[in-house]
Amino acid sequence: MLDPIITKETLIFLSRLEKNNNREWFGENKKEFKTHEAQVKVFYEEVGNRLRLHDEIEKVKMFRIYRDVRFSKNKTPYKAHFAGSFSRLGAQRRGGYYLHIKPGESFVAAGFWAPNKEDLLRIRKEFEQDASEIREIMAESGFKKIWGALGGDEVKTAPKGFDKTHTDIDLIKKKQYVFVRKFTDEQVLSPNFVHEIDEAYRAIRPFFDYMSDVLTTNLNGESLLD
C-alpha cells in the first residue's frame, strides 16, 4: 500500500482560497474543499501512526479551516492552510508536535509554544543552574542539521529575578522553546514527505526527553510526579 501524500491539487486549492477568502467563494467550492480535507486528514493520521512507533501519542488533532475572527484584526473567515497537532501522552511526556501545510510556507514544529508560568520558571531556573546538557543536545550534528537553532519569543533583556549578564541568558530569556523545520512545495509533494516528517520528529526526542525530565523534577532532581 502506497503512503498517503499531499497533492499538487491541494496546494492549488489553498492558493485559490487565499485569493478568494470569502464565504461566497468557499460555499461554491466547499465540496472540493471537503475532498482535499479528507485526503489531508489521512496524511495526518499516517504521521500520527508513525509517531506512535517511537513515542506515545494521546491524540491527533487536525484544526478546522474556520478562523476565529472575534479578537483579530484579520477578518478573513478561513485559514489558507491545513494544520494539526500531535499530543504526547501522560504527565511525564512533555512537549508537542505540529504540522502546517501551506503553499510556500509549510513546516513542522516541535517544542513548547505556551508553557504555563510554573513550567517556564522551572525551565529558566534549570538553565540558570546548568545549561550544559541542553546545549550539548542542540549542538549534536544530526539534531542541528534537521532542526537548526532554537526559536521562540523572548523578553528583551532578562526575566524578573534573573541576571541579564548570565552566561546562558539567551536561553533564560525565552518565553517559548520551539524548533521549526521548513519545507519547500517540492518536498511537500514528494512521496517521501511523510518519511521526512517522521525523521524530524524522531530527531527531536533527545530534546523532549531532557525537557520532560526537567519539568517532572525539582532542582534537586527529585520527582514531582505522584
What does this structure look like?
The structure is a single chain. The longest helix has 22 residues. Strand 2 and strand 3 form a beta hairpin. The mean pLDDT is about 95. This protein is an alpha+beta fold and about 230 residues long. It has a five-stranded antiparallel β-sheet. The protein is built from ten helices and five strands. Helix 3 crosses helix 9 and helix 5 runs antiparallel to helix 10.
Instruction: Report the span from N to C terminus.
Output: 44 Å
The gross shape turns out to be: globular
Number of strands: 5
Low-confidence stretches: none
Give the H and E element order. HHHEEEEHHHHEHHH
Strand order of the largest sheet: 1-2-3-4-5
> What Rg is obtained from the alpha carbons, in whole angstroms?
20 Å
Helical percentage = 40-55%
Output mean pLDDT: 96
User: Percent of residues in beta strands?
Assistant: 5-15%
Largest sheet: 5 strands, antiparallel
> So how many helices?
10
- Helix/strand structural class: alpha+beta
Main features:
globular; 226 residues; 10 helices; alpha+beta
Q: What is the fold's blueprint, element by element?
A:
Elements: H1 8-19, H2 23-28, H3 30-51, E1 57-62, E2 82-88, E3 96-101, E4 106-112, H4 117-129, H5 132-139, H6 141-147, H7 169-172, E5 177-183, H8 185-189, H9 193-203, H10 205-215
Helix pairs in contact: 3-9, 5-10
